[in-house]
Known about the structure:
Strand order of the largest sheet: 3-2-4-1-5-6
Shape: globular
Number of strands: 6
Oligomer: single chain
CATH superfamily of the largest domain: P-loop containing nucleotide triphosphate hydrolases
Number of helices: 14
CATH architecture of the largest domain: 3-Layer(aba) Sandwich
Keywords: ATP-binding, Magnesium, Nucleotide-binding, Transferase, tRNA processing
GO molecular function: ATP binding; tRNA dimethylallyltransferase activity
Largest sheet: 6 strands, parallel
Protein name: tRNA dimethylallyltransferase
Family: Belongs to the IPP transferase family.
CATH class of the largest domain: Alpha Beta
Order of helices and strands: HEHEHEHEHHHHHHEHHHHE
Catalytic activity: adenosine(37) in tRNA + dimethylallyl diphosphate = N(6)-dimethylallyladenosine(37) in tRNA + diphosphate
Helix content: 40-55%
Amino acid sequence: MIEAERGLAPEASEAAAPPYAAAAPPSWETIAPPSWEAIAPPSWEAIAPPSPGELLVVVGPTASGKTELAIRLAERFGGEVVSADSVQLYREFDLGSGKPTSVERARAPHHLIDVADPLEAIDAQRFAELAEAAIGDIRRRGRVPIVCGGTFLWVKALLFGLSPAPPADPEVRARHRAIAEAEGRAALHARLAEVDPESAARLAPNDLVRVSRALEIYERSGRTQSAWHAEHGFRERRHAARLLAVQRDRAELDRRIEARVAGWLEQGWVDEVRSLMARGYGGARAMGSVGYREVRAHLEGGLPAAELAPAIVRSTRVFVRRQRTWLRDQPVAYVALAER
């Protein structure tokens, strides 16, 4: 009866079973993880205005469109942009830092860009102090502050503060730079691995600034940087903040990175770095950032011209992976941003 009701002959019910019934199902372990890239994000125009005291913070990977999103939000909400980029605040480090153009700055006021001499040491703590002052000034004038940047340690310093580790010591850092120049950056990283393997594991050997800082903390306090961070916890927010980012799939982001690097090189990035080095800025902190260090290596004879752009693109992609790792643990709202 049951077979007849289904429209099957009784003797054919077993034979007519769908073919997948006989196939061995795949293991649950083959289930792919969910991808945020497969989810269509809302348009940036759906972003609600900030509530009183709320801080809008535009984050996201390099070349994802942070500057454009921040400017559009500033235009829409009567805001001003506070840069959270560890290179943009230095004068004369222009092309490779992705500073907003004069046209972009005319659309919205910007803060903490071109405010420091190339040889001035600005760390995350000092940035947080400068950013707090800028945010307070913007709010006192009845405007909306919008923080924008990809230096996530600085964003974290602004939102949560930093652990009370010993402050930077120029003499210690100079000694570390001398070691790196004489023995190579890998030698300094190896020293860090001996005393603070946890910090060494998360820092690239060529990241001289951060490797030096982690080693400096141990040398001055006898405690590892990872121990200081674990004690601090970064749990208490200083600001009610809403984190926003432009969603880009990996292929699109790769194309944007390649186009940006090619464009900057065509606009004279190598000449900019050559001029900086000629004026004694070859050892500036910003010169160790992604892109600038590759151009410097090229000018010093360590990187052929044909390999320069690919090397910068590779370093940028590595940096983007680190940015994505940080973003995965943050309550970020992703939005779509169409080109104009």
